[in-house]
Amino acid sequence: MKLAVIEGDGIGKEVIPAAVEVLDALGLDVEKVPVELGYGKWEKTGQAITDDDLEVLKECDCILFGAVTTPPDPNYKSVLLTIRKELDMYANIRPIRPLPTVRGILDRSNFNFVIVRENTEGLYSGIEEIGQDISWTKRVITRKGSERIARYACKLAKERKNRIVIVHKSNVMKSDKLFLDVCRETAALHGVDYSDELVDTMAYKLIRSPEKYDVIVTTNLFGDILSDMSAALVGSLGLLPSANIGTNHAFFEPVHGSAPDIAGKGIANPIAAILSLKMMLEWHGNMSEAALVEEAVDAALTEGIITPDLGGAYTTKEMTCAVVDHIKKEMRK
Ligand code: NAD
Ligand code: IPM
Ligand code: MN
C-alpha cells in the first residue's frame, strides 16, 4: 500500500507521528509518502497546497491526515476542503461510540451511531461573495450529491440496524427538500427504514437519548456541527476518528482540528488519529490488524492511561507507547 502521510499543523504534528508509530508496529508492507501541507507551508512558501501535492495524493492508495489551521482570511482557501473536493471524497463517515472507562457528558455508554455527512456540497460549495455590506454563500444541493450519500448511508445501514435518520432543515431552507426527498426515495428503493428530523431537534434528541440512533445522514455543515457535539457524548474531540470516502480515493483523519491551544505541549490525545488509522486498515481489508489496534487502544484506556482532555495526566507519547506495547506483546504471542 502506498500511503500519503500528512501531519499538517498544530497537534497534527503530534498525533500523526503517534499513529505512524502504531502503523509501524504492525509490520505491514506500507510505503509512506510524507506530504507537507497547510498553514505552516503557506507561511514558508506562500502556498498551502500545490498542484504537485494534489498529484502525489491522487497517486497514493489512501491518505492519513492530521489537521490543518485555517485562518479566517477570505483569500485563504482551506486545504482540507480542496483535498476533499479535488479527490471527490463525498462521504464523511464519523462513528460515535463510547470507549472503555471513558465517559462523556451523559456518563453512560449505551449508544453507538454513525454520522454520514455529505462532504462536497451544501454550504461548503465555495460559491460566495464577500462585500462590505453584504456577503453570501450559496448552498448547493444536487440530486446526484444527495443520491450518492443516501446510497452510502443505506449500504451502511444494511450492515447495521437497517434504518436511517435523515437530518435536514427543509422548513426553512427549501434546498433541503431535495435532499430529504432523494434520501427518502433512496431508502425506500433499498428497503431501508427511514425517518427524518430537523437539525435543531436532532441536536436536542441526540444529547437526550443518543441510544435511539444508528445511521444519521445529513448535509455538510449539519454533519460538521453534529460531529463535534457528539464528541461531548463520547468524552473528547480527541477520541473521534473519521473517513472521507470517494469512488477512487480515501482519506482518514481525526474529527478534531489543529488545537492551537494545546499544540506543542505534548498532551494531545492521539486516540482519534490512531482510530482513524484503524478505519484505514479496515478500508484496506487488514481486518485483524484493525481489530488489534482497537484492542490496544481499549487496553491502554483500561490500564488507566488517560490524557488531560479526559482528566488524566499522561502525555501523547505515553499513550502511544501503551498502545504500541500492547500491539507488540500480542504480536509476539
Ligand atoms: P479544534 O478541534 O482544533 O479544538 C477544539 C478543542 O478541542 C480545543 O480546546 C482543543 O484543545 C481540543 N482538542 C481537539 N483535539 C484534541 C486532542 N486530540 N486532544 C486533546 N484535546 C483536543 O477546533 P478549533 O480550536 O476551533 O480550531 C483550530 C484550528 O483547526 C482552526 O484553524 C480550524 O479551522 C482548524 N480545524 C481543522 C480541522 C482539520 O484539519 N480536520 C478540523 C477542525 C478545525
Ligand atoms: C471537519 C473540520 C472541517 C470541516 C474544516 C476545518 C474545514 O471542521 O473536518 O470537521 O468543516 O469540514
Ligand atoms: Mn468539524
Description of the structure:
By secondary structure, this protein is an alpha/beta fold. The protein contains eleven helices and twelve strands. It has helices spanning 12-25, 39-45, 51-59, 79-86, 143-159, 175-190, 199-208, 220-234, 271-284, 287-302, 316-332, and strands spanning 2-8, 31-34, 62-67, 91-96, 113-118, 128-130, 135-137, 163-168, 193-198, 215-218, 241-245, 250-254. The strands form two sheets. Strands 2-1-3-12-11-4-5-10-8-9 form a ten-stranded mixed beta sheet, sandwiched between helices. It starts with a strand and ends with a helix. The mean pLDDT is 97. Bound molecules: nicotinamide-adenine-dinucleotide, 3-isopropylmalic acid and manganese (II) ion. Manganese (II) ion is lined by residues 224, 227-228. The site of 3-isopropylmalic acid has 8 residues, from α4 and α8.
Topology:
Elements: E1 2-8, H1 12-25, E2 31-34, H2 39-45, H3 51-59, E3 62-67, H4 79-86, E4 91-96, E5 113-118, E6 128-130, E7 135-137, H5 143-159, E8 163-168, H6 175-190, E9 193-198, H7 199-208, E10 215-218, H8 220-234, E11 241-245, E12 250-254, H9 271-284, H10 287-302, H11 316-332
Parallel strand pairs: 1-2, 1-3, 3-12, 5-10, 8-9, 8-10
Antiparallel strand pairs: 4-5, 4-11, 6-7, 11-12
The protein binds nicotinamide-adenine-dinucleotide (NAD), 3-isopropylmalic acid and manganese (II) ion.
Nicotinamide-adenine-dinucleotide (NAD) is lined by residues 11, 15, 67-70, 80, 236-238, 253, 256-262, 268-269, 272, 309.
